[in-house]
Amino acid sequence: MLKLSLVGIGLFLICAVLCTGCTEQPATLMDSQIVIDDKGEYTMDLDPGKYRVTLQSDEPLDVSFSSVSSYDKTEVTQYDTVATLSNPAVLTIKNPSLIGMGPSANVMIKVVKNAV
Questions:
Q1: 25-113 adopts what CATH topology?
Q2: How does DSSP assign 89-104, residue by residue?
Q3: Cα(55)–Cα(94) distance, rounded to whole angstroms?
Q4: How many Cα atoms are found within 13 Å in the side-chain-facing hemisphere of 80?
Q5: Could you give the count of Cα atoms lying within 13 Å of 104 in the half-sphere of its Cβ?
Q6: What does the pLDDT read at residue 89?
Q7: What pLDDT sits at residue 57?
Q8: pTM metric for this prediction
Q9: How far apart are CA 96 and CA 75, in angstroms?
Q10: With bands split at pLDDT 50, 70 and 90, how would you rate the model's confidence at 17?
């Protein structure tokens, strides 16, 4: 009887250890301040997955994903979305310009993979 209980406990522990890797934990890929010059852009390659992208800027910016346009926004100073990508994508943040003499944008950006 004791031997059967130990086998059961052993199987339970093996399953518990294997299942801890089943759910990916959130991972912060970027959390910093950047400067995007007038007419400049910042890009980040993203693998398929779920991402939370948050940014704040002192200048209006255009945000886009190369493979999914439903998350795209133009002329935003704040952006906060959870994007689910089924294909690889490039996140692009642009500082648009009409004549090339505009100000640089100070941007706080945070990108978290497997966001909840």
A1: Jelly Rolls (2.60.120)
A2: EEEEEE---SSS----
A3: 12
A4: 2
A5: 8
A6: 97
A7: 98
A8: 0.77
A9: 8
A10: very low
